[in-house]
Structures are given as structure tokens and as C-alpha cells.
Design goal:
Blueprint lengths: L2 H12 L9 E3 L3 E4 L2 E5 L12 H14 L7 H5 L2 H13 L4 E5 L2 H12 L5 E5 L4 H9 L3 E5 L4 H9 L7 E6 L11 H10 L3 E5 L15 E5 L9 E5 L1 H10 L1 H4 L6 H16 L2 H19 L24 E7 L1 H13 L2 E2 L2 E2 L9 E6 L6 H14 L3
Helix pairs in contact: 2-11, 4-11, 5-6, 7-8, 12-14
The chain binds pyridoxal-5'-phosphate.
The site of pyridoxal-5'-phosphate has 14 residues, from helix 5.
Length: about 375
Amino acid sequence: MLEFIDQGLAELKQAGLRRSVKTANTSGRLIEIDGKKLLNFCSNNYLGLAHHPKVIERATIALKEFGAGATGSPLICGWTKYHEGLTKKLAAYKNREAATLFPTGYQANLGTITALTTEEDTIIIDRLNHASIIDACRLSKAKLQVYKHRDLASLEAVLKRSAKFKKRLIVTDIVFSMDGDLALLAEIVELARKYNAITMADYAHATGVVELPGEPEIIMGTLSKALGSLGGFIAGDAKLIDFLRNKARSYIYSTALPPSACAAALAALEVIETEPGRKKRLQQNICLANTLLGNLRLNVAVSKEPRRSASGSLEQQSPIFPIIIGNNERTMRVSQQLFDRGFFVSAIRPPTVPDGEARLRITITSEHTKEEIECLASSLRELIPA
Ligand SMILES: Cc1ncc(COP(=O)(O)O)c(C=O)c1O
């Protein structure tokens, strides 16, 4: 009866798409796998906050106070002073009236997009948005429409032909997770206003790392990347948050985050404010990686050009550097060769990225040293000649 599973796994193997996990015995800038210590160049711990002493200390206090789990969904008995304190902090950090939490970023997208849309509406998304947004659209009864990646003319064309829908919800990643390029947020919000549409922006890889001009009505984020913890959030008008607490099924029907995860994220937000040097170090490292990887003349995503912020200063770029190799097996091979040389860089293959665009997704953090980034770049130069 389960032959289809053998067949499915065999097909994946044949296509070079079979996946497996690697078990880490330590985590951080250095990660130990299979008894080997590696420099980790694929975590989303952009500011090193998952291991910050203050973050660990505050999580430990909450753990001792409230135990391992929340013991209930938010509306039943799972909402603690740590959840409440974190939502207040997030709302202030994102400059919005209110915020609420979800068990993960994935569930924040799922619950919010499905709660806000009906069969009378349309959801308009960038082609390269994250899987959680795509899955939310699949679950929603609204009509899904896709515009070309970062293409404002394509977005406007969709908006022009969508007047018949009751609501139009535009959803975009801020930092595109597999390409590392940035949304044209200010322009998207302007177009949305022109066509009476609502904008929702996913700040998963941006929170604590990248700021863009533009004020979307709905801010989605996650605690699981630069904040080093776990959990998703939405920030916006108080009435939006009230509505989601009444309608978003992934909020209502799932156990609340462990209080310790909230305490950790709260501490991480405080560290971002009190230790601006971390973000500065990250920006310096991104700058260095830009120079070194750019010099390799590899197929680094084309849209990583610096942008100007509202104040006119040059925008820092994102810490995500894709090196598109194309072929699945070759990408796996280079990832293994890097492993053998002491670097952990996961290979990303379809369906996470489009067919023929398998890649190494290198992520830079504030914790990497100049020498480590230089070493990675020179290994890449040897393994993937220009
Ligand atoms: C753009 C984007 N949105 C949402 C998510 C989901 O967030 P989480 O890992 O907290 O579920 C991710 C993370 O993988 C992401 O990259």
C-alpha cells in the first residue's frame, strides 16, 4: 500500500532532489556536525543574538518561572506577561499601535492572509515570495495573482485589471529569502494607495537588519531570524490586531509560544537597541562579502544594488548571498566540498527555488571575522572558477 512512497523517494533521488537533515552537536558561528567543527555560513542568526548571554539569561528566568511550555492557546490560558510585554515592545519597535504573536512566522502568514481575505477578494504577490505566503494564498478563497519579481509595471498591470474585486491585498517579502534582494517597498505602497489596495510586508529577514522607506498597513515578522528565538508576529493598527485575534485560525487554534521564547525575543530587541555595534559589524561584513563575492563574478543575484533610504543615505544590503550554480548534483557537490574544507553552506534546490536555479545560499552574520569571510571567498574561487 505504501509503494508510492518508495517510488516518490526514488524519483526525488533520481532528480538530485532527495533531502536529508544534518544533526548539529553545537550551534553558532561554529557548528559541529559529524564530529567536525565548521564555520557556519547558512544560519539566519544575523546578529548572533541566539547565543547572547542576556538573551539566554532572560529566557532561563522565564523558563524557571513558567515552565517549558505555554500550556494553552493564547485565548485559553497560554498568554503570559512575557507575551504581552513582547507585543508591546514589537509594536513600539515597528512604530505601530499594536502587535500580536503566532507560533511561527509561517503561521503568521497563514493565519493573517486567510483571515483578511474572502472569495470576493484578490491577493497579489511577487513571484519569489516565501512559501508560507504562497501556502496562505492556496488556503484562502481569494483569487491569487502573481506579478513578475520586483517589477512595478507588472504589479500595476495586475492592479489595473483587478477593479472588480472587493479587496486587493498586495503581499511582498522585504528581503527575498533565497535571493537576498530587497522589495521596492515605497513604490509598492504608492501603487497600492493609487489603486486602493492594502499592503502586507513580510519582514522575516529584515527585522533588526534592513530598514526600507515605505509604510505598509500590515507588518509581518518573525522572531526566528535576527532575533534568535522562535515565533511570528503581526504589527499594525489596534483594530487589525483585534480582528486577527478573533479570526486568525493559526493564532486561535494553536498553543501559544513558550514564555521563554518571548522573553528571549524581548531581550534580543533590547540588545539591538543597546548594542548598535552588532548591526554595524554586520553591515561591514556584508560590504566585505559584496566585494569578495562580486569579484568572483559568480552569478550573484542582479538586484542587490544599494538603495537610498528616506534620509538619502546608502542602504545596507541584505546578509543573504545566493551563488546560483544551476545543476542540482553540482550544487550538492560544491556544498560537500565546502564542508570538507570546514565551511557549512547548505545547498538550496527546487522547489525552494525555480528549476535550474539550484544554489548555495551564503548568509553573513555580525559574528564572522574578516579572515573567515576571506577564507570562504577564496575556497569558492577555487571550487567554482569564474
Ligand atoms: C520570507 C519568510 N517569511 C516567513 C518565514 C517563516 O518564518 P518562521 O521560520 O518563523 O516560520 C520565513 C522563514 O523561513 C521567511 O524566509
